[in-house]
UniProtKB/TrEMBL annotation:
It comes from Pseudomonas gregormendelii. PANTHER family: BLR3841 PROTEIN (PTHR12993:SF29), N-ACETYLGLUCOSAMINYL-PHOSPHATIDYLINOSITOL DE-N-ACETYLASE-RELATED (PTHR12993). It holds the Pfam family PIG-L. This is PIG-L family deacetylase. InterPro entries: GlcNAc_PI_deacetylase-related, LmbE-like_dom_sf. Transmembrane segments: none annotated.
């Protein structure tokens, strides 16, 4: 499967800003998505994906007092292959530090937030899908509400984690929701590949959006890339623009 390249981000007509279906997505409130007292578990392929997926929803759930658990499958250290500025050794430490700062900017209760690091190899998750599912299942329990990347996001790590998380949630008896990240940046011609019937919109107020955008900018290693080597930033301007939308979309 082709991995979406953000070189396509220069195209003006992308799904996130051009699909007519976006206006007709039903709104879901937080209490319906995550019932009172339920624990929310966010499973991300790399540090930072949790903010891109549902940084607004995390704020809403925290304000309502829901117990939260984050699982990051990799340390994100292979973001820039061949880079000296952002070597794997440096990123193995730096990416996690950036995530701590991003979650602090979101207002997450860092003293009580449970955050599990999987330690799997970045950019190789598709080779370990069964192990991923087993690992995730160990940290889930019946009644959890799980959020993970969409299994058709067209990023190999995202897709593998989405499939593994779905299997683990089914095995344990947890509710499961998928969240697209890169899929929104496909050309508008791909909009019919989106499962619109499953899409639900979580509305965010102005302050929640502002905190999410501020948190996104905590990922300094992802904002500039390394132009001398032709390595584009993993968080280009167009993705940062989408982070300022007054809603998030989940597939239920």
């Amino acid at each position: 499967m082709k991995t979406v390249s953000f070189s396509e981000s220069s195209l003006p007509a992308q799904i996130w800003n051009s699909a007519a279906q976006l206006d007709n997505i039903p709104v879901i409130n937080t209490q319906t998505l995550v019932p009172p007292g339920a624990r929310a578990v966010v499973i991300s392929p790399h540090p930072g994906d949790e903010v891109m997926m549902c940084g607004g929803l995390l704020q809403l759930l925290s304000a309502l007092g829901h117990p939260l658990q984050l699982l990051s499958m990799t340390d994100g250290s292979a973001s820039y292959p061949g880079s000296q500025q952002w070597s794997e050794k440096r990123l193995s430490v730096f990416r996690s530090q950036e995530s701590v700062e991003a979650l602090r900017r979101l207002g997450m209760p860092m003293h009580s937030l449970k955050w599990i690091r999987g330690g799997f190899t970045d950019n190789a998750l598709a080779e370990h899908e069964a192990q991923l599912a087993d690992f995730i299942a160990r940290y889930l329990r019946p009644g959890d509400v799980v959020f993970s990347t969409w299994s058709e996001d067209r990023h190999l790590d995202h897709d593998a984690v989405g499939r593994a998380a779905a299997k683990a949630a089914k095995r344990v008896g947890a509710a499961f929701n998928e969240v697209p990240i890169r899929a929104w940046h496909r050309p508008i011609r791909d909009r019919e590949q989106i499962p619109w019937h499953r899409a639900r919109k979580v509305r965010l107020d102005t302050w929640t959006v502002a905190r999410k955008s501020h948190a996104t900018h905590a990922y300094a290693s992802q904002l500039d890339g390394e132009p001398a080597l032709g390595l584009a930033p993993l968080l280009p301007r167009v993705l940062l623009e989408r982070m300022r939308l007054p809603y998030e979309i989940v597939f239920v």
